[in-house]
Amino acid sequence: MTLPYKARLNEQTFLNLPGFNGGGAYVYAFVEDTNERGLGVGPLCEPDCTCGWKDNFEPRLELSISDGDDVVNLGFAIESDGYRENSLHKLDTLIAALRVFRAALMEEFEPYDRRSRELFELEGGCQDEPPDRGCRRAASIS
Ligand SMILES: [Zn+2]
Predict the structure, then answer these.
(1) Number of structural domains, the chain?
(2) 81 CA to middle of ligand 1, Å?
(3) In this structure, what DSSP letter does residue 130 have?
(4) What is the pLDDT of residue 53?
(5) From the CA of 39, how far away is ligand 1's center (Å)?
(6) Is residue 62 included in any domain, yes or no?
């Protein structure tokens, strides 16, 4: 017997805009909604056991990040104050890392563009094209 998981959150979001490489990259978030479920059977019982042994259970929690090939699954637990604190800390740390990464990435726009302008001038106004189109030439050594 399989338990039907009722979802509080069940969302897979692709990370790249359509047409960009790595179109298979995604983040998947699942949080089971156990609001209407009672206690589960004992940890050593079969799902339809009638021995009366009851136990609490954790909701199914899943946060996965994929680059299209590999998947990283982050684990979360809510069974104690310590586990809850750690789960929230893990999420807050991830959110903070993403925010500072985003800001640092944006700060690299200008230096990259400056170098592109420099290259553009060096190549005599040739448009930036893939190398196989033959536009680039080696900079002269002076
Ligand atoms: Zn049992």
Answers:
(1) 2
(2) 28
(3) -
(4) 93
(5) 13
(6) yes
Cα–ligand 1 centroid distance for 58 (angstroms): 18
Q: How far is the CA of 40 from the centre of ligand 1 (A)?
A: 10
| Residue whose pair of structure tokens reads 């290259």 in the numeric block | 119
State in Å: Cα 80 to ligand 1 middle: 24
Range of the domain at 59: 1-75
Residue 18 has what pLDDT? Answer: 87
Same domain assignment for residues 43 and 1: yes
Distance CA 93, CA 96 (A): 5
- Ligand 1 centroid–CA 48 distance in Å is 8
Low-confidence ranges of the chain (pLDDT < 70): 1-3, 22, 126-142
Q: Which of 65, 13, 58 is nearest to 32 (CA)?
A: 58
Any domain includes 134: no
Whole-number pLDDT of residue 5? 83
Contact 64, 73 (CB under 8 A): yes
